[in-house]
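Data availability (excerpt). All sequences and predicted token strings are deposited with the supplementary files. A representative entry, BTB/POZ domain-containing protein, is shown inline so that the format can be inspected without opening the archive.
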Amino acid sequence: MTMKLFDAHCHLQDPRILNKTPQLIATALDTGVVRFAVNGVSEKDWNLVKEMGESYPSVIPCFGLHPWFIEERTPNWFNTLKEFFQITPSAAVGEVGLDKGSHGKKIDFNDQVQVFRRQLELAKELNRPVSVHCVHAFGDLLEIMKSTGPFPAGVILHSFLGSAEMVPEFAKLGAYFSFSGFLMSMKKEKATKMLKAVSSDRILLETDAPDALPNGKFGSLFLVDGGIFHPEGENSSSNADSLRDGDSHPSKDASALPRETPNHPANIHNVLSYVASLLDITKQELAELSYANAVRLFSYEGSKAFVRSELPTTTTPAFVTQSNSNYECHQMASRDVSSWLSKSPSPSEVQLHVHGMPFSVDKDLLSARSAKIAALLKENPPEKLAFLLRDIPADPETFELVARFCHGYELILSTENVIPLISLAYYLEMTESHSDNNLLDKTLAFFEDKVLPSWNETIKALRSASSTIQQVLHSGLVDACLESLIYKALADPRLLGEPIKNSTCNEDSEDEEVFKPNARRKLFSPDWKSEDLTTLSLQLYNPLIQEMNQHGVPPEYVAASLCQYVKKWTDSGENETIYKRGVIEAVERLLPPEKGIVPCTLLFEMLRLAICLECSNDCRSGFEIRIGKQLDQAEVKDLLIPSQGYSKEIQYDIECVRRILKHFYANYSSTDVSGIISVAELIEEFLMEVASDIDLRIDTFVSLAEMSLAASLGTQRNSDGIYRAINIYLDKHRYLTELEREEVCRVLDCQKMSPEACEHAAKNERLPVRFVVQVLFVAQLQLRDTITKEVQEFDDKLRREVVEDEENEVKMGFDEEEVRVEMEKMSIKMMELERECCIMRKEIEHGCTHQKSKKGKVSMWREMKRKLGCVSSTHDCNCQVKKKKKKY
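Structure token line:
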């Protein structure tokens, strides 16, 4: 049986072979290559490709802007591209793509992404397959396809050299994997593993002519000039079967040809032989399945390839999903079809394609359950149903479940399949008004009863919906899940994870007891563990956390979940730059504004990631502001942020540290200066750390030193820390001239150095002479000031002593005068007392004139006067006063 081959990607319009294209096509046709997908690469060759498609029935034209040529595009390039598709209904899209290789890295990658995304969206809009070029950018490609796809019409990953692990992810989005002579440059073990990860219904073959010349180990090579290259020990026919039987490889291959030798489209036979040998199948088997895959892929409305009779009977679509890695299983699946589904379509069956997977289903049974399909069949012939349902919002597995339900099989619902089933049932209008016990009500009841009441089941359901997120995002199902999770988090925030321990934040023990897991849950399931929110894709996690912030979920728990999300999605090597960048930017927007809920060290780690991943300026600025508010909690290692420049002299991002310091001062409102002192010490330590960098330039170091001085403003700190940093810098840069060393030392204020530092500086041979003289002069001034101060203090002491003596003398004189005045007052009082006594005596004597005095008896009054020390007359009293005065 003659093999038919389909060259899924080539460039027959290339200037290197353009003048020989008729002969190349004729030769390839003679060898069994019946179709050529000719890909344009720039505006300059689109018209050539169009004319080639019109001239050769076997050529399928493809139009696209290759990443290597985007800098040459005109302002109106996209409108021109769309016009070519309007006038060429048989055309597919290609070659487009992303390139970070040796050639592509010279072209702005953001520009590549912008151009590629527009063409990818156009291919989806036109429902045409698109051929994609990808070099060292598979992660970026996957993220763009996830955000734009899925692609029911198919995406061709041409000359695929990616890893086996990425194959399933691309396949879910509708990718086909095309292999060329470049595959021979891959290690055999790696190539075999990757090939066996590709489903048999996704394999394509190509030449990429005039590039990707095979190495010739698997047969003779057709040359563009008309000759044939025969490797040593080989005849003109390739023989992969004999190689599998153990025949030795020829010692000489295509490496003997000049490196610039162009490839011939007939050399697809060499690719066929090599791929078949790695898969351990015959060339005939590989030719049939790859040809059938290509015909199915290019069978869109208006295409030249849509010829139903060309499909081999061995690849008749079956309602069975095929193995992704085992070709024996594929062969068995092709033969073992369910009894209710015939191998060849019957008159009552229609053929549908879901993400490239063919299904044959009974149109009567399907329309009995689906109001949408019933309406389409009523207005259109069955043959058009596949085209009308080309955008079915489901993956093949979900559609298979729906088809089984329509054919009367028991439907097994689970948390993982309920959301995709609801989405597809809604799309197909499988409602109770159309048929009793229909799918939509069954799935909704399961969703409400089994999924929404449970935190874990809700997260599992959301996670399973990631593959069809674009279809279910606006269906209301996601909103219901998010609302359920939010209310559960409000009741028990610990479902988000434990808050991050921060040594600067003292948490009350009472606060730790506020939120506890449900007691009933703990009683009946002691090992219960909540599902982690961080397993959700960013498209679901972002709106969920945003709503939690708005509903007042405690910020420390939200912050803990966000930090876990960053760790999970940025530490893994499986996620590429674009997705990681999106994660970091989203986390920065979602972080609660409260100070201290995220440790400063973690914020610095996120900032480093934001810089490394080239996140937006708003994202980086947001992290810098958050860090600035709590910079006094940072350590010097946190400030060592690598610069993204290419020069060694900017090893650390000095400007970033400067901005963070500015934010600290702008937001510092405490009256306690301890925070300012901590930051001043931190900057000095940072200066000492970077001073040892041998490549640190003088102006950069001086700038850092000035920043350190600025951090010390408002504090009574000395300049010893800056002096130590200068000493380290001069020690590591001994080649500096005297003038350069003076430039380094100009920021140092000698007057703020301690005596110990001055003493060390005076003996430091690394310092410039001028600076040493300044230090000595300052030391002399300090000594003079010290002596002057001591003399002044001594003089002040003597002066104080003299003043004190004078004050004592004055005080003593004041005491004598006071005694004299008091004595005078006492004398006056005594005189008054004597006067009163005299009056009393006279009154007594007058009252006793008629009485006789007793003989020998002393008068009582006289006795009283004697005891009082008073004389018997006024004269005597005056004499007593005079005597006292005289005595004094």
